[in-house]
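Hey, quick one: can you model this chain's 3D structure?
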Amino acid sequence: MKHKSVKALINFIMTIIGITFLFPLFWMLNISFKTRSEVYDNPFGLPEEWVFNNYGDALEKFNFPRYLSNSIIYSVSTIIITVLLGSMLAYCISRMKWKHKGFALSYISMGLIVPAQVVIIPILIMTNKIGLKGTHLGLILPYSAFALSSCVLMLYAFFRGLPVELEEAACIDGCNVYQTYFRIILPIVRPAIATQCVLIFMNTYNEFFLAFILGAEDKIRPLTVGLLNFFVSIGVNHWGQIGAAMIITSLPTIIVYIIGNEQIEKALTAGAILK
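Sure thing. Here's the predicted structure for all 275 residues.
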């Protein structure tokens, strides 16, 4: 009986905490349907007059299609490069025998502790010198580089748990290393790959610092930087349109997370500890 009471109390506390996490989203959705004056007079209550024109006005003033297309280009390209190269490197470190692979794993792990703010000046200089300034590739490559470490470490944990007999059976059947990797290993770790795709998409889609520094031209700016420009142009006198713009830009990440949240939980639980 005592155990059930403790469990019920824990569930209640976790429910309250979960509701507090959802409150900013509710507040943002709430103000998106309010008039300019009601946002100040009634900031937390439901709208007395539901204003749906805020979304149309926000889309008219905010170049959503262009910024969205840029964000999708960055996110999808980063996913392809990072998952392809990261999974191959993780497979090489975890399944193959070669010298200095321990050093390679340590070197990859260092990528988790290097913030973008520390290396932004060298990155900016390199992109200028190799002619990537003002191009999508000038952001895709840094995004992929920063996402590579976490991708390799998570997939490394998954690859290590696979039995060696998989490669032995594939070798007997005449598969080379690449056939074994693409036909046997990758389908088995599909949940981990899906998790990495979701995490990389969310991190890249929501990234602001690198996009603000490297994406100087308006034609290559993602949604995060475009949203800042929208805030600056409209000012803080119409929070209804600001809330509508934030809801519009948040929808892709919300949808992706809802679809992939179960895979994220499974993968993080399985790969949380590196032996």
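One thing worth noting: The CA atoms of residues 134 and 210 lie 13 Å apart.
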